[in-house]
Amino acid sequence: MAVLPMKRVLICGMKKDRKAVLELVQRLESVEIDAGAGEEDEVFVQTDVSSSAQLFQKNAASAARALEILNAAAPEEKSILSSFEGRKEMSVEEYERQVSRRDEIMRDVGEILRIDKDLSEAKADIPRIETQIEALGPWMELDVPLSFKGTKKTAAFIGTFPEELSESEVLSRLASLLPEIEDLNVDVVRATPEITSVMVICMKKDADAVDNALRHLNFSRPPVSDEVPAKQKELYQGEITAAMKRMDEARQELQSYAGKRDDLKFAVDYFTLRADKYKVLGSLSQSRRTFLLKGYVPEEAAPKLELMLTRNYEVCVEFSDPSESDDVPVLLKNNAFSGPVESVIESYSMPGRGELDPTMPVACFYYFMFGMMLSDFAYGAVMAAATFWILRKFKNMEPGMKKMMTMFCYCGLGTMLSGVLFGSYFGDAPIVIAKTFFGKDITIWSWIDPLNESMKMLVFAFVIGLIHLFTGLILNCYGAIKQKKYADAIYDSVFWIMLVGGLLLYGLTTDIVTGMFGLNKISQGIGTFGGICAVIASVGIILTGGRESKNWFKRTLKGAYALYGVTGYLSDILSYSRLLALGLATSVISSVFNQMGTMAGSGVFGVLIFIVVFLIGHTLNLAINALGAYVHTNRLQFVEFFGKFYNGGGRKFEPFAVKTKYFKFKEEN
Q1: Are residues 158 and 64 in the same domain?
Q2: Which residues touch 74 (CB under 8 Å, ≥6 apart)?
Q3: Which terminal CB of the chain, N or C, has fewer other CB atoms within 10 Å?
Q4: pLDDT digits over 570-610, tens only?
């Protein structure tokens, strides 16, 4: 377990090479650039490149949108496990070839966006035209255009009333408003309970008066067209057919770009990279002919960085040790066994300055505790085999995903070990199958039977918890000694180990503790020794627990309050009962599904029912309890374990890297 030492790096180069240097640094992914280290004075200034960065972001967004459109028109064939494949690897030479085609690719992007716009317009035309056809519905029996205004001597008014009316009712209402007009004709085209479509004809000299009267009666005019409604409907239907044809042509044209999918993916990554590069470029200190780049680099990566830069460009690379005031990022490096749980550490917090990397002890407990909570050999075998197969098949998997799969593979092995210890193989499936379908009684060896020896299992869980907690205290002691805080090591670790350990030894000499857990008493002498240790530790905690206070009275009160923290250890130890609870849940649910599967008997039909219930039940049980084991194992690390020695607060190392979505670039050594 190790926190890699960091070096400050200063790169000074020619201004003409700054973009190429940044691209090389980005591909090496070993330098975290200090964006706040840019200096401005009479010589060095910072360049405003925000407009260029925004342009590249816009191009990346356009390419992403074009790719989304293409994927919708011509879906990419992917397997159900495609999420494990990772990004495609691209050599620097291939990258440069693609860069030379960027303008051509962006023209394709523009064409795809144009085609999609045409497609969207055609899609929008159809409901608009259908609405117009629907509006023509009440007028299909009309034999003149809706724009008809009358003849040389007459005026025509075509429109609707918002209720069902007959010709006589319309004439009656108009007559009441226009008693002086006699020549008035009303033709009801269609009448429904909601609307009445009419054509009113009058002499031209009476047109204004009739118009005013119709307005008074809530008369509404329809959309005007120069064709007879039946003919207009045919025209609209022709427009729908044309719009659908345009849509088909647009889709076919989009599908023709399927072979350029990788080009679009490259454009997304390329312009994203350029946008990131220009953001960094704007933070550099630049003079008329030179530039300065400052940041952090892992000490082990410094030689390669210097070699790659000095071999290709006229640059000066200088390394130095960070000062105490520097906000140094943290990068962890662990072996193949413990490295997979680095993500667990990162999700809590990276180690603070001077703190130990807790990855190795976390890994040792993590795999075993996960196994105890899932506690079934077959479940562990399925998990380990599945993750191992994925790791072997997908060599190009992303590092984060690879670590997670490896972690679950080890968790599967831990589950297999627990399954052997507790005699669980798909629960009691071997016993049930042998008895139901073969008429034989068999037994399976187990060190502890959780269902029948629950108290023994609980004691075992508490023992694991005590080891876990004491390991945390020992690590706290080691960390303090490493920082030469010898008094703190005694006050904050040794005293608590003596207190908790002494109380446990003394408790094992009492009837109440041994009777409750079914344990044998230890000798009275050992118990007395434990009690003396606990008393000494208690006095020590009272005297030193509030040592930051100069006033002896406050110091004593704070020490007494610190001693009260021993109750927290009781709750911490009880928290490990979840090892029993989740293990029992897995076993009980497994047994229930096994029994349910045998309810149809031992015949052929019974075998089929058993197989169906077995597969469905155990799949659900594995999924639910694996999730529970993951959550509660994390909790035991974060709350109980880290609470004894680990503060965190470090900042993760974030190198200037190729943060792409589809391709990754390999820099040759």
Answers
A1: no
A2: 254, 255, 257, 258, 261
A3: C
A4: 999 999 999 999 999 999 999 999 999 999 888 889 999 99
